[in-house]
């Protein structure tokens, strides 16, 4: 069966004009979602999971806009929410849809929240914490009409305290709506898939769509010193790391450097800029090659630095876990990890930010800071 046959002629036509063909995640995911069953789509970065989850709902709701909030999207990362909202503009504009999309996070001004209550959007993008707050406030009334719930990056929260808290909120949502809401989970390739599926459905029957495929990796550990027991004359390993990172950044189009805390993100970005401008006396010739990105930045700053990297206007972002999940970073061709990422899954997730397109090679370089990092 043609995967596009379940859509209206307008949606079919838009998709065929915009894309060559559905990806495996879309081809297998759409029929499962259209059946009304709880669904988990597991696929690698760049496989079109977001459109796989949203397109059927957009197609169905476009015919009846303005009838309350019916499609709810929850992501564990605020930065990803703004990216999703941008990515929905394409299909909504292409279909000339009148559906309204809104974002509600901790950054949303009170005035906007009040406006949402008066006139609920058709699609709401939020975080687990904001969903909990809505369920315990007057905003609960807005959630009563939800029909479909999309849970993104579920592998990042399954098995954690944050995930358990989100699972409770999802169960409470069913009580608010008065009938079971269809749950659509999106996950990076992670095994066992059945375990992630149980997390999404709360133990109920669920369709498992396995569109996972091994992503080609170009991974290398860069040891900055021959003997890591001896930091050298300067008494620190950093003077050996900075120039090597700068060299790699200069050899690639766009680089994300992952570090494990905000302070290091700021310090490393500053040092890379200093090194890149050594010997440049004229202020007009100085250039900024790196910016820091972390959860403490104001919303406007985060969006600005993400946009600069996507447009290729800044070669490097030094980030904490704030850029770890599925933000669309198509231009990134190298990921550098400084120190151990703490787990293999997290390391692979971060390296997967490079070569975000389907079939592209994910290139990563890992800089150990201590001998224990080599393990």
- Along the chain, the helix and strand elements come as HHEHEHEHEHHEHEHEEHEHEHEEHE
CATH topology type of the largest domain: Rossmann fold
Please bin the fraction of helical residues. 25-40%
Q: Nearest-angstrom radius of gyration?
A: 22 Å
**CATH C-level of the largest domain:** Alpha Beta
Per DSSP E runs of 2 or more residues, the count of β-strands stands at 13
Architecture of the largest domain in CATH? 3-Layer(aba) Sandwich
User: Going by CATH, what is the homologous superfamily of the largest domain?
Assistant: P-loop containing nucleotide triphosphate hydrolases
Shape: globular
- Domain module tally: 2
Number of helices: 13
Sequence of strands across the biggest β-sheet: 3-4-2-5-6-1-7
End-to-end Cα distance: 48 Å
Query: Uncertain runs with pLDDT below 50, 5 residues or more?
Result: none
The helix-and-strand class reads alpha/beta
